[in-house]
Structure formats: C-alpha cells, structure tokens
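Run log // design_07
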C-alpha cells in the first residue's frame, strides 16, 4: 500500500500577508512535517484562485489522499469552491485562535474564514472535518482526523478475499458486492477453496518449513493428537499468504466449514489466527463485512481485532461473553503460556481433527462493533466497555466484557433491531473514531447507551 500523502493549503488574502503571517504558515508546515505521512505543499501562501488551481494540479499529480486547508487568515472566498471541485479527496479545515495585535488589529480572522468555508462546502455537497487550535499543537490536533481519512483511503483500495463463499444458512454473512464497492470502497475477490488447497500442495520444501515454523511458535503448548496437523496448518498459512500476494488482498473472509475438514483434513481456525497476528485481518464463516470492519478497527486503533460470537450475558454483573472456537490471534491472549494448539471441539463430532489455538483473551478497554446492510445503505452497532480477567471456562477463545452501557439495553438493541450474530472487537477505545467514520461514509451509527 502506498505511503499516505497529505496536501497542505495555507490560505490568506494577499493584502493581509505580513512576515508574521508567513511565519504562521512556516510553523504549520513544520508541525505537519512531524506527522508520519508524506507532505505535499506549495511552499507559500495561497492568495488567489489562480494559485489555488495551480496547487490543486500539483497535488492531483502527486496523488494526495487528503488535504489540510489552513486558514492562516480570512481568505478570498472564491478559493474554497476551486479546491472543493478540483480535489476529490477528504478535506480537513484548520483554523487557529488569535488575540488582538498592537493597535487592536485582528490580524488573521482565521475561524471566521473557516466558518465561511464550511458553509460553502456544505452547499457544494462536500464532506469535510473541522478542527481548531494553535499551530504549535497541529500535529496532535490533526492526529485523529487524519487517522480517520487515512482509513477512508485504505478502504478505497482494500480487497477482501472471499474463500469459498459464506457457510450454509448464514444469511448474516451475505454481502452486496457492488453496494460495498460503491459506498464503502473494498473490492471482493472470489477465491475457490480448492485453489488454496492446490496452492498448499505446490509449495517448495523451504516454504513448507517456513509455515511449519510459524505454527510451532504460535502456541506455548500443543496436544499430542495434533502433531499430524501441524504441517498441513503450516502449508495452509503459506498458501493463504501466497494467494494474498497474488490477488493483492488486504483481508480474508473464509468459509471455514463444512468442507475444510473433509477436503483438507483440518479446520483452518488456528491458521486464521496466525494471519490476524501479522495484520492480514481474516474473518470466519465467509463474513465479508466482518472482515471489512476488522480492517477498519485495525486501521483506527493499530490494534489486532477479534471476530466473535456473543454467547452469554449476565444482567446482574452487567457482563457478556464474546467467544469463538479457536481462531483468535495470540497477539491478544491473556497469557501466552496458556495457549494450546488443540483439536477442534466441534468438527466431525468433536476432538477428531485440528487445528485450533485455545486461550482466553486479555483484559483492558475494548470497543465492539458490527457493520450491517440496512435498507439501501449500512448501519453500525457500537458499544464500548472493559474486558475483564477471564478464565478458560470454555474451549476456544472466551472473553468476558463489562459494557459501559446496560448489557440488557445492548441485548435488547441486538434482538429488537435484528442485528447479526457476528461481532468484531478491538482492545482500544475508538467509539468516537468509529462515529466519525460513520459520518464520512453515511453509515447510520447505533450506539447503545
């Protein structure tokens, strides 16, 4: 994926430009350069529509992903429509506080200029974000909105490998391919399960050994009965990596049953966890929207998401249990010494074929979400909470969560509004970031309070 690029416009009226105003521009440019992104700028104040047009051309030539429009002073009003029409990328409006200068002069009028701009952008039907603060704090102030628009840029080039389709009867995993492409961005690549199996059988000895090494290091312990499943799991891991490279995938949604164990001899659960460990987010049961949301959560938090079912709840303790059968990434385990490669406790009647990685997940602040088709668009369920210390009271990967909201309200919302049974969770407090993403993408947020 290419380096994320931001463009910087420093707007001012020519008659307001002074050495002090130029110093504000330079200070802002230095603050932006401190961000972990490539910066494209004009190296001067933009004071006319002609200058704005010229800078737009350069930024389009350099393929910037977002722009920061800084109101160094109140600008020429006609500049904003030029930028809005020429730049088809997210716009972040930045204005700054000021105090009267010597003689009572109001030298910048920055916020007023930004106020005029947002009205113009709304009339033009353009999405934008607006922030306000001192230039010296620009990098900190812009961190969250830039994280959000970076996620938008990543979604526009995202590609989910749907391996085998959805599992039987799981209409919750259905996905309108063209709606997703049009409204959120990701492309879906349909991959036959047999292609993955065929690729796994054509690996070199070196590739097989590499995959096997990853499997062996993926847990602290393993059941003796799974020894024969280790090499197939390593082959599957390498085959998934090769296919991801072949198709340019950023995520997987895997039809993990019922065919895998018959065709390949093992379940793919532990392999899915290993893919998530390296940042190639992968959902189970062919849930494409689950994989897309996992990529969103990873992008907004730089954390490792967990794809799971909600299996139980306790109204008195205000807790609920998230769980899946052994596909969780060890990056979020409670204690690596507890991790155990085991046979699947359900496949072919249970305890006959591998391979799962069983352990409880770690505690800490979490955000749970779900992305769901709704009408002609999408809705997103969002609930924040705290994961609490969880014993391995059930096979697989359990996690007990105490939600900030009433767990009864949460359950009532799910059941009364017909949400899906798959959820994604990440160890981070990103409720506000998800709400901002929903605003950009016209997704209806459903936040349980």
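design_07 sequence
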């Amino acid at each position: 994926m290419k380096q994320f690029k931001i463009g910087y416009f420093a707007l001012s009226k020519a008659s307001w430009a002074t050495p002090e105003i130029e110093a504000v521009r330079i200070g802002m440019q230095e603050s932006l350069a401190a961000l972990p992104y490539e910066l494209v700028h004009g190296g001067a104040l933009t004071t006319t529509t002609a200058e704005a047009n010229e800078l737009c051309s350069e930024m389009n030539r350099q393929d910037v992903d977002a722009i920061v429009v800084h109101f160094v002073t109140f600008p020429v009003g006609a500049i904003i429509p030029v930028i809005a029409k020429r730049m088809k990328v997210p716009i972040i409006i930045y204005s700054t506080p000021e105090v009267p200068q010597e003689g009572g002069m109001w030298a910048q009028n920055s916020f007023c200029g930004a106020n005029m701009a947002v009205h113009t952008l709304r009339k033009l039907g353009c999405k934008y974000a607006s922030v306000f603060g001192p230039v010296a704090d620009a990098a900190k102030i812009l961190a969250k909105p830039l994280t959000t628009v970076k996620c938008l840029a990543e979604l526009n080039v995202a590609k989910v490998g749907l391996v085998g389709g959805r599992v039987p009867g799981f209409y919750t995993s259905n996905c309108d391919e063209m709606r997703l492409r049009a409204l959120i961005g990701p492309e879906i690549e349909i991959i036959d399960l047999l292609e993955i199996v065929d690729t796994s059988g054509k690996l070199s000895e070196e590739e097989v050994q590499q995959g096997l090494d990853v499997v062996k290091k993926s847990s602290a312990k393993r059941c003796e009965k799974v020894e024969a499943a280790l090499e197939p799991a390593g082959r599957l891991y390498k085959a998934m990596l090769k296919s991801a490279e072949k198709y340019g995938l950023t995520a997987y949604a895997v039809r993990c049953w019922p065919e895998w164990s018959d065709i390949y001899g093992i379940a793919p659960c532990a392999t899915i966890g290993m893919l998530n460990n390296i940042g190639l987010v992968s959902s189970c049961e062919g849930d494409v929207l689950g994989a897309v949301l996992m990529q969103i959560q990873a992008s907004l938090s730089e954390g490792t998401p967990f794809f799971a079912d909600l299996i139980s709840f306790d109204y008195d303790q205000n807790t609920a249990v998230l769980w899946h059968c052994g596909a969780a990434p060890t990056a979020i385990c409670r204690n690596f010494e507890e991790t155990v490669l085991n046979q699947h406790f359900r496949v072919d009647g249970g305890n006959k074929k591998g391979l799962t990685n069983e352990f409880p997940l770690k505690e800490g602040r979490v955000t749970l979400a779900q992305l769901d088709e709704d009408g002609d668009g999408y809705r997103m369920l969002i609930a924040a909470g705290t994961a609490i210390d969880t014993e391995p009271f059930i096979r697989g990967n359990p996690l007990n969560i105490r939600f900030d909201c009433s767990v009864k309200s949460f359950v009532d919302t799910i059941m009364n509004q017909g949400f899906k049974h798959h959820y994604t969770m990440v160890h981070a407090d990103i409720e506000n970031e998800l709400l901002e993403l929903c605003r950009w993408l016209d997704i209806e947020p459903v936040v349980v309070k």
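The domain at 5-156 is CATH 3.40.50.10940 (Rossmann fold).
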